[in-house]
Structures are given as structure tokens and as C-alpha cells.
Amino acid sequence: MTDPQPPVPPVPSPDGATPPPAPPAPPAAPAAPAAQPTYPAYGQPPAAGYYAPPTNTLAILALVLAFVIAPGGIICGHIALSQIKRTGEGGRGLAVAGLIIGYVFTGIFVLYIIGVIIFAVWMASMGAAYSTYPY
């Protein structure tokens, strides 16, 4: 494509002097580093293919319940693991952590109850041996 109008010649100044020469061209920009990853702009969703699978809700619940109601964490952890295996969701680590913590806390609670029962039986037997009441 050619320009239909001819170039305009430089206009001489009123005193007859020639115009000053054009300033030199700016230096070329430095070359961009090779293979830098591109990130999405702030507030923009990542590009397709970068989404992580959603986290299973029961896996999160299993971890929370393991600290509050340990048997609930165990139940939710087992259900979450089966759902994760079936659907491919994320959160397997959360479910396993909920299971482990739930089992540990349940074991500690069972040992505590056994200790309380043993202590109560021991105190009852010692109380009868040292009774000051006549029979």
C-alpha cells in the first residue's frame, strides 16, 4: 500500500536558516528474559488447566471434628476417603489426618476412662479396708 500524497518538504524558518536535525533514536529496549512464567492479573482466574480439584467437604469436617468430637472425625474421615477415591476430589491428606488424630484422641479417651474405672474400684476397695464404722 502506498501513500497517495507525496511527502511534505521541510519548511524553512522565516530568517532563512535550516531546521535543526532530528534527535537521535532512543536506544533499543533490552531483550526480555527467556521462558518466564506468565501469571494472571490480580483478581483474574488462572488460565485453563491450572485449577486444582475441589477439596472434599467431609475431609475438612473430619479434621475439625477430630479435635472436637474424635469419633465424628473418624466417621467423616472414612466417608471422605471413599468419596475422594470415587470422585477424584482433593483433600485426601486432610481426611487421613482427621482419621489419625481421631483415632489417637479416641484411644487416649478410652485409656482415661479405663484409668478412672480402675481408680474408682481401687478407692472403693481401700475404703472398705480402712473403715472406722463397726460392722
From TrEMBL:
InterPro entries named among the record's database cross-references: DUF4190 (IPR025241)
Ranges of residues in domain DUF4190: 58-112
Ranges of Pro residues composition bias in the record: 1-30
Keyword Transmembrane among UniProt keywords: yes
Stated name of the protein: DUF4190 domain-containing protein
Annotated spans, Disordered: 1-37
UniProt keyword annotations, A-Z: Membrane, Transmembrane, Transmembrane helix
Keyword Lyase: no
Origin organism lineage: Bacteria, Bacillati, Actinomycetota, Actinomycetes, Micrococcales
A Pfam family it matches: DUF4190
Parts of the chain that traverse the membrane: 58-81, 93-124
